[in-house]
Design goal:
By secondary structure, the chain is of the alpha+beta class. The protein is about 40% helix and about 15% strand.
Length: about 240
Amino acid sequence: MIGRVIKSETRLLGVGLYTRAEAADLVQVSWTKMNYWIEGYTYRLKGDRIGTQPPVVKQVLPNVGGQSVITFLQLMELLLVSRLVKEGFHLSTVRNAAKELIDLYGSEHPFAFKKALQRLRRDKKGKGLYIDDPVIGLADLSGSRKLYLPPVVERYLEKIEFDERSLAIRWWPLGPDSPVIVDRMRSFGAPICAHSGVPTYMIHDAATRGEGDDIIADWYDVTLEEISAACLFEETYRVT
């Protein structure tokens, strides 16, 4: 992960940093699609006119070490964007929801902000997104009614931990019962085993070289469960 290259940048501690290629692996989308979500895109209209679409998740950091980087909070937002799109929500609906949530809650990371996510609702037909807040009332984020919490958001919340500011701090990509975590306060956000702190790629590399589980466990002081989970994570998310 990019954090291995910039450990002298103490101002970035607790941020969690990823190259765009690493983020695309973790979110499980193409690099091109992820760039559209971060940078926006242009498209051709009739009569040689050009249309534009703004980003869904905004870039917040300048290049670090000559590389364009994604923060942990952006990663969590991109993760939810990908899940919502796969669930059938149109990207324009997701983009509009993000914009409205920023206006309503003042958070720069609306899809990594628990107070907003817990109050997301969808319409009966499954295409509209709303926020149902006890203070501001019902805010239409896309265009219809009859609401319930989208199951995709419920599943997302089950794997995310939040800090006292209601911002995402820790992600359990294989579920909360797995030892693999992505934590912005540890190892610059690199995927690690929660108890030992050993990066998953190191365990997986050893396994792919043909080292036995007992040897890996002895080298890194990890359990067999951690070895199994680390290998599953690396093979599932194809982290480069």
